[in-house]
Amino acid sequence: MRIALDAMGSDRGPAEMVAGAALAVRAAEVHITLVGSKEQVLPALEKEGISHLVDFVPTSQVVTMSDSPIDAVRKKKDSSVVVAFELLKKGVVDAVVSPGNSGAVMAAAIKYLGRLKDISRPGIASVFPTLKGPVVVMDVGANVDCRPKHLFQFGIMASAFSRIMFGIEKPRVGLLSIGEEGGKGNALVKSSHALFQSSGLNYIGNVEGRDTFLGDVDVIVCDGFVGNVCLKLSEGLAEAILSMLKEEIGKTLKARMGYFLARQAFSNFKKRVDYAEYGGAPLLGFNGTGVICHGRSNMLAIKNALLVADELARNQVNAHILTMLENNMPVLADFEESDVPAGAA
Amino acid sequence: MRIALDAMGSDRGPAEMVAGAALAVRAAEVHITLVGSKEQVLPALEKEGISHLVDFVPTSQVVTMSDSPIDAVRKKKDSSVVVAFELLKKGVVDAVVSPGNSGAVMAAAIKYLGRLKDISRPGIASVFPTLKGPVVVMDVGANVDCRPKHLFQFGIMASAFSRIMFGIEKPRVGLLSIGEEGGKGNALVKSSHALFQSSGLNYIGNVEGRDTFLGDVDVIVCDGFVGNVCLKLSEGLAEAILSMLKEEIGKTLKARMGYFLARQAFSNFKKRVDYAEYGGAPLLGFNGTGVICHGRSNMLAIKNALLVADELARNQVNAHILTMLENNMPVLADFEESDVPAGAA
């Protein structure tokens, strides 16, 4: 598979992106096309010694985190994000990986790839670590006001992703809510419950916030507002906990010695929860494969994102999504006739 | 102040509640009325040696976690929850503390206390620990589908609480959203932003999930669905992180020795994030003061909840809320005329 990597727009700069590409081409049979500034990318490729192993497409513009997504796509035609998606549209590459402004990445995907047939709202999935295996949460920010059929399509897309990435034949799907009984939740969740129940998904019912990290569910479905709050809350809390622990440990010599002895355990733990291990958040529901990485992604995160993109493209995640959608069409069609809650926009 | 403590319905049983009451009466000048089963509470009072220091009101029924809130209040008239709120209504006590079924506690408060004048939706606030001071989050579960004016009233009520409990003269209020700019969020948040901006609250704009634990905001406002998911997600994640760390530390003798040396730091850290330190979640917006405790509250949590209830009643939290509401009436009245988002039920 050929993957375009947007080398610009990350917090760490193009050199880190190129280092990530170098890790990926050395780890797997993946063909990478770096897209970005000639002045910044070419020297980095030289330095990593991978100039002969990857392709390069020069661009002159950069989409920043503060750019409005729509303006960015409209006005910065020669930006690395836009050009990467153009390459995908033209079939020059099979997938795009970008650590840039996620709104602009979404906007470029909408413009250049378009929605997958019968998907109303493409979205972004994210992988959370748990006490057992990883869990896929969708949507984490692309769609803030949703209807039941949107949540249902998130369930289908995230299930297809879980199957390909984690080899789970029938991923257990839960609706994120505030009580385990089907009758609990807001208007959107209550109304979606029936749709999930009558579907072909392996639906296990509502799950609560605290179930997220237990590992007893493979896919958690929520609207993009709730999902994004959860994603950022989790990141913030994990950092706060480690920072508070560090502060307490720093207070006495004895505790510092203790930490020194236990440091391998801390480092194993950090690896277990490190976002970099999970390789970014897949864009699902487009005619093409894309992966959005955290703006502060390090080379390891970029490497893993490239491998995830490769896996998704190679295993045709979209074909899986289309099949699952087709199998569930009668359920969705029946549901359309019934009422949708006032609480869903 | 006189506080009724619902001694039944907690996961740990009446003896733990009585032990909490004993801690409270020995720590402060607070008058407690235990409400619950004679057979279970009286021996515990004897054992703690506080029979002469507290009052006791016998009840014959118990509301369980699986009872439907409305049925519980309607059919279990002689339950500890219902009787405690009756005592408050009659003016026999000044506040109620309950570790029971929070839906039933809300239902009893609605029935026996009623809403505070001009408050459309009473709710539940919760205190989260942060890197700096505590932050008050409201609503955490009572109101799942909200309109802007409800969020605004949560902002007022939580500000009054923050002022009384933490002595913050003008609490910084943030709207929980998925981007810091005012234009970002779901329909409800976007529409609420203008209302907060034109108000007399110390509104600092949108805050994101990751800001929750930084301590740069005193009050975070969100609907009860989002707030409840955040509360439970945070509890679940904190437990998962500690459990993963423990697992990693358990793997080698060296790490276990390290932990032994650093154990005081771990215990200080746990104390810092322990829900028990924060004394339960206040019910705000009712004609009367109530505090809901976690079902698994230990004696320390109960003691702190009793002291919080005492503080709220003594400092007349409701008078503060009413004054703030009155000061903001013109803003609310102006807003009523404009459109509310389709996304809000």
Characterization of this structure:
The structure is a homodimer of 345-residue chains. Chain A is of the alpha/beta class and 345 residues long. Chain A folds into two domains: 2-120 and 277-316, 3-Layer(aba) Sandwich (Isopropylmalate Dehydrogenase), CATH 3.40.718; 126-274 and 323-337, 3-Layer(aba) Sandwich (Isopropylmalate Dehydrogenase), CATH 3.40.718. Helices cover 48% and strands 15% of the residues of chain A. Chain A contains twelve helices and eleven strands. Chain A has helices at 14-27, 38-48, 69-75, 80-89, 102-112, 148-166, 187-197, 224-250, 253-273, 299-314, 317-327, 329-337, and strands spanning 2-6, 31-36, 55-58, 95-98, 123-128, 135-138, 172-177, 202-208, 219-221, 281-284, 289-292. An eleven-stranded mixed beta sheet of chain A has the order 3-2-1-4-11-10-5-6-9-7-8, with helices on both faces. In chain A, a hairpin with a 4-residue loop joins strand 10 (281-284) and strand 11 (289-292). In chain A, helix 6 crosses helix 7. Chain A is globular. The model of chain A has no long low-confidence stretch (mean pLDDT 91). Chains A and B meet through helix 8 and helix 9 of A and helix 8 and helix 9 of B.
